[in-house]
Every structure is written in C-alpha cells, then in structure tokens.
Amino acid sequence: MYLYEIRDTLQATVLCGEEALDREVRSACASDFMSDVLAYVKDQGLLLTGMVNPQVVRTAEMMDMKCIVFVRGKLPGPDIVELARERDIVVMRSALRMFIACGLLYSRGLAGE
Amino acid sequence: MGDLKLTYQVDGGDLLQAGEASSQMKMALKKLDLPPEVIRKASICMYEGEINMVIHADGGHVEVTVGMDAITIRLVDQGPGIPDVDKAMEEGFTTAGDVARDLGFGAGMGLPNMKRYSDEMEIDTTVGVGTTVTMRIHIA
Ligand SMILES: Nc1ncnc2c1ncn2[C@@H]1O[C@H](COP(=O)(O)OP(=O)(O)OP(=O)(O)O)[C@@H](O)[C@H]1O
Ligand SMILES: [Mg+2]
After folding, report:
1. Could you tell me which of A14, A60, B7, B124 has the fewest CB atoms within 10 Å of its CB?
2. Best residue in B20, B41, B43 to probe A by mutation, most A CBs within 10 Å?
3. Domain A3-107's class?
C-alpha cells in the first residue's frame, strides 16, 4: 500500500515527508509499547501508535520503518517531527482510534506481516 | 585491516534523549559495506541495551567492535545489577516504573529481544556493582 493511500484511508494529516508519499509499505505494526514493536522484525514499513515521544521515532529508525502514524489525534511536538525528518521517516497523524485505524488498513489489504 | 572500534557514552536520567548512541552507531554501520539485516539486528540489540542502561542503571558506556565476521556490542554500567538473570530474561518480567511506562517501555521484552536478535549474548552482573551485557551479531 502506498503512503498516500494510507493518508487517505486514515484521513490523516502529513506532518513531514510530503514528498515521499509514493513510497510503498507491505505490512504494519501497531503498539504503544516500543519493545513490542521491536520484537517483530519483519518487513514492517509502517508503525501506528498512540504514544508520543522521541523514542517512537528512534524505534522506527532502528527498524528501518518508512512511516509513523500517530493515532487518536495525538500531536507530536516539532522536535519529534524534526527527528523523523532527519531520519527520512514520514510522519502523519489521524484522529481515528487505533482499532479503527488498523481495521481500515487491514480491510484494504495491508497485512500484519 | 584491523577491527573498527566505536565507543559511546550513555547518560542516565534523560530518557527522552535515550537512543542517541544507537542512532550514531547505526549511521556508522551504514557507511560500512554490511548487509541491512545485520545492521538492523545490531541496532535493535544496542537500542534495547541503551534504554535498559538509562531506565535501570543510570547510564554507562558502550563499546562496539566491528570485525570481519561479527559485530560485538558491549554495554557496561555501574547500576544496581540484576539479582535474578533467568527471571529478567523472561518475556514480560519488568521492574520498570511509571516514568518508563509512560514513554512506552516496561513491557519486559528488551532482554528477550536482545537474545532473539543477537547470535550470542552474555550477561555478567553483580548486585550493587553493575552489569555488562555482551552481544555478538554474526556478519553473513
Ligand atoms: N542494565 C540493567 N541494570 C539493572 N537491571 C536491569 C538492566 N537491564 C535489565 N534489567 C532488569 O531486567 C528487567 C527486564 O529487562 P527488559 O529489558 O527485558 O524489560 P524492561 O526494560 O523492564 O521493559 P522493556 O525492555 O520491554 O521496555 C528490567 O525490568 C530490570 O529489572
Ligand atoms: Mg528493556
């Protein structure tokens, strides 16, 4: 699934990486626990989380993820967005709750692994 | 060609900054001709170790050695030590407090992750003295 499709599906706002929305991800991971995310290293390009802090970006960076979506309307501060921009990671936010966000993406063909 | 050695200081106390050393190591590894999978495994191992150092041991330092056939990561701290290593290695075991939890840590998955992604791992710990975790990630 392309990142612009993810943006549209989640009615998300892009906070950085607008120019990289033609990148594709094959699977996603959703959690508020970073070690949970780090436990399943498949080719997960997308991270959905309700946790807002720099460690989310670090975690995505270690995993070579392409995009982070902050759900439940969480708004990351400029420092977090800047860190992601430096690491070439696209950041979006969506007002949807985690369950709904995951369900929508899954039903449109994005796999868990 | 000799081994490449990298050393990083890890400050305790500031959990928001934690991960900086891992990030720097990852960038250094990317400049070498290493398989992406190896870099990813090494990065996750180091990151989990670095976070543990900050949360549980008030910081320390990390020595990374890149040899011909393995990356060795040695995390050294002078923290409280681990009283029961077998228990600490269990998935879900944690002593992390609310501050760590509020940042998304404390799932009790860090050490199991380090074990999973490294090819060899050794924990040398003494209560009241500190902990040294050594991990080796084989290259190809
Ligand atoms: N360097 C260390 N010094 C002292 N105790 C440690 C150290 N590393 C781990 N521990 C102990 O081992 C436990 C398990 O560590 P582990 O990394 O698996 O989980 P966690 O750090 O509690 O949570 P998570 O890693 O999922 O965020 C910790 O809660 C802590 O009690
Ligand atoms: Mg940990």
Report:
1. B7
2. B43
3. alpha beta
Q: What gap in Å lies between CA A53 and CA A56, rounded to an integer? A: 6
Q: What is the ipTM for the molecules in this complex?
A: 0.91
- For A72, the enclosing helix (H) or strand (E) is none
Report the residue among B46, B50, B56, B103 best suited for mutation to probe ligand 1: largest number of ligand atoms under 8 A from its CB. B56
Number of domain units in chain B:
1
> What is the model's pTM?
0.95
CATH number, domain at B22? 3.30.565.10
Residues in chain B with CB shorter than 8 Å from the CB of A45 are none
Q: What does each of the 113 residues of chain A score in pLDDT, given as a tens digit?
A: 999 999 999 999 999 999 999 999 999 999 999 988 998 867 779 999 999 999 999 999 999 999 999 999 999 999 999 999 999 999 999 999 999 999 999 999 998 76
Which range of residues forms the domain containing residue B79? 4-138
What residue ranges do the domains of chain A occupy? Answer: 3-107
Q: Any residues with Cβ below 6 Å from ligand 1, and which?
A: A 35; B 48, 52-53, 55-57, 77, 79-80, 82, 88, 93-96, 105-112, 131
Q: What is the CA radius of gyration of chain B?
A: 14
How far from A85 is each of A67, A102, B24, B40, CA to CA, in Å?
11, 24, 16, 19
